[in-house]
Amino acid sequence: MPSIPPLPSFRTPSRASAPLPYIPVPTARAVVDCGVYVDGKRLPGHYGHKQAIAEVRSRGTGFVWIGLHKPDAAQMADIAATFDLHPLAVEDAVHARQRPKLERYDDTLFLVMRTVLYVPHEMNSVSEIVETGEIMVFTGADFVVTVRHGDHGELTGVRSALEAQPELLALGPGSVLHAVADHIVDSYIDVSEAVENDIDEMEEQVFTPNNLVTIEAIYQLKREVVELRRAVAPLQIPLHVLSQSPDTPLPKEIRRYMRDVADHHTAVNDRIADYDESLSELVSAALAKIGVQQNTDMRKISAWVAMAAWPTMVAGIYGMNFDFMPELHQPWGYPVVWSVIVGGCLVLYVNFRRRNWL
């Protein structure tokens, strides 16, 4: 029988897996908004970042405020070349996950702040409660660049509120820095109040009789408070420097506004520290409640075991079937043994009830 030739293969030859080529994305894709402000008012029209800074410098007054959302390295490099940003700060702005800090590069300030968002949840569920993100702010003599990472912390409302107060915008880029910091600290206050409500509700459940609270839920809430504290607490030093140090390139009036923001931050930071201590005490109380409940359960089990042991002992004695056990040959033997068993169990039950073991 003739052999059948193999069918031709239509598969393309396999290639070694190589990384996909990088396709540059225009910088405009990362720009949320870009505005030119002169004498506290926004100029009409749409500007790219290069046209905006050229307009300001040709006028010799005003500043540019450009907002970015999750820019990549190429997009951020384009912005850095336009506004002469330091490479170290640009690298931090791209990679994110930075600790709140304040750095100065000549006349440019670089402020990193963490944003927080309260996530609604079920009380006894082990789920995320506080979501974090980041906002970086570059401020120079004639520009502000805000870089946002995360799906929350939008600054659209901040920009609209500032544009409604031209007397503040007239103070320069420092007014934007103050407004963004004030917005973030206000969000800290809102989130801390929501977490406080969770702690109060958790405390009520822990101290409510016959109400079982999972210790995992308390640990989860404590972990989220620790995450909140890590986002909030490090900002204290940068705000202190911005509000107190005359060496920063901020107008005196802006430093006064920053003192108010620093005061609010100190209050919320102290409140979060109290939450951490309260949850530690709540964990101890919950563990003590679990221990008391376990002791109660063990007493009940021991009481029932003792009552079961009495008839077992009696039945075991009379189940030996020795010939010289006179009760076995008496007509009253069976009811008497049952009376002894029931009577002994009743005595044990009454005693355990008096001692609150049952």
TrEMBL record:
<keyword id="KW-0472">Membrane</keyword>
<keyword id="KW-0812">Transmembrane</keyword>
<dbReference type="Pfam" id="PF01544">
    <property type="entry name" value="CorA"/>
</dbReference>
<dbReference type="InterPro" id="IPR045863">
    <property type="entry name" value="CorA_TM1_TM2"/>
</dbReference>
<dbReference type="InterPro" id="IPR045861">
    <property type="entry name" value="CorA_cytoplasmic_dom"/>
</dbReference>
<feature type="transmembrane region" description="Helical">
    <location>
        <begin position="332"/>
        <end position="352"/>
    </location>
</feature>
<keyword id="KW-1003">Cell membrane</keyword>
<keyword id="KW-1133">Transmembrane helix</keyword>
<protein>
    <submittedName>
        <fullName>Magnesium transporter</fullName>
    </submittedName>
</protein>
<feature type="transmembrane region" description="Helical">
    <location>
        <begin position="301"/>
        <end position="320"/>
    </location>
</feature>
<comment type="similarity">
    <text>Belongs to the CorA metal ion transporter (MIT) (TC 1.A.35) family.</text>
</comment>
<dbReference type="InterPro" id="IPR002523">
    <property type="entry name" value="MgTranspt_CorA/ZnTranspt_ZntB"/>
</dbReference>
<keyword id="KW-0813">Transport</keyword>
